[in-house]
């Protein structure tokens, strides 16, 4: 198969997010990544306060990488944070009430203040992966028509060794599990989309006391093997159109089932052309 743009449109695109969806529940994968509303022909997405918080903090950090290193903190990132938060305030950000929004906004503000107080490598040279179509991506398997894609939060350039350091920022309170495929996927993306060796990989936990946690670099062969296995499973499910929830309505797919039943509130179209909804938590049965 030739590596061209037409083939990319017919390929199976896999990311850490879509793979995580499938591993949680095949039905969730279908509803979040394949299903399209018959009226708009858009995919659907559920927005929650936690997702909004993560989105805004990541947007602020990403904006820093677009500024020359010596100028990054000449203007407080909190200004960018405030401006971005205004765009998601209220129902559009999934907030049920002002008190809930205030709580999440304060958490976000504190995270940004953390990187202002000690920017570490954020004030140094960074490398960005570029792409001509969608997220940074490469042909994981031309034979099986699979593309691996994703956006790495930060790639620090290490001038002494002429190598790079992959960093993922965490805005939740919990640590990434040891079985997570996130770093293996980011490692493969960085290896295939830029020329320098990768010598470090870290998580930066912004919402707890862990701070920066350096992780062992993934083994390339092992990473490829693990992703090949899940890619084969997803490819087969797509081919057969078989995306069954193992429990007939788990906590992962149930919110999306409610969306397609019309229980969500439409709040707009995302940057990825998805119809975005909020969903009130149903009242517990008495």
Automatic annotation (TrEMBL):
It holds the Pfam family PDDEXK_1. It comes from Candidatus Woesebacteria bacterium GW2011_GWA1_39_21. Residues 14-253 form the PD-(D/E)XK endonuclease-like domain. This is PD-(D/E)XK endonuclease-like domain-containing protein. Gene3D superfamilies: 3.90.320.10.
């Amino acid at each position: 198969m030739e590596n061209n743009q037409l083939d990319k449109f017919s390929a199976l695109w896999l990311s850490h997010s879509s793979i995580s969806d499938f591993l949680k529940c095949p039905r969730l994968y279908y509803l979040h990544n394949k299903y399209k509303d018959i009226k708009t022909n858009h995919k659907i997405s559920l927005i929650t306060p936690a997702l909004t918080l993560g989105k805004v903090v990541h947007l602020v950090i990403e904006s820093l990488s677009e500024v020359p290193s010596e100028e990054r903190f000449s203007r407080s990132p909190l200004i960018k944070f405030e401006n971005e938060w205004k765009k998601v305030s209220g129902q559009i950000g999934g907030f049920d009430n002002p008190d809930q929004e205030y709580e999440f906004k304060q958490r976000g503000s504190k995270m940004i203040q953390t990187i202002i107080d000690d920017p570490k490598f954020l004030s140094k040279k960074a490398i960005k992966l570029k792409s001509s179509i969608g997220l940074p991506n490469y042909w994981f398997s031309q034979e099986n028509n699979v593309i691996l894609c994703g956006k790495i939060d930060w790639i620090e350039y290490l001038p002494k060794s002429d190598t790079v350091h992959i960093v993922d920022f965490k805005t939740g309170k919990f640590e990434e599990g040891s079985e997570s495929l996130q770093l293996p996927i980011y490692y493969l993306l960085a290896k295939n989309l830029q020329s320098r060796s990768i010598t470090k990989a870290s998580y930066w936990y912004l919402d707890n006391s862990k701070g920066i946690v350096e992780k062992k670099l993934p083994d390339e062969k092992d990473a490829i093997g693990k992703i090949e296995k899940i890619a084969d499973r997803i490819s087969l499910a797509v081919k057969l159109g078989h995306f069954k929830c193992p429990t007939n309505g788990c906590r992962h797919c149930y919110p999306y089932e409610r969306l397609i039943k019309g229980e969500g509130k439409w709040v707009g179209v995302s940057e990825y052309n998805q119809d975005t909804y909020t969903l009130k938590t149903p009242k517990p049965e008495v």
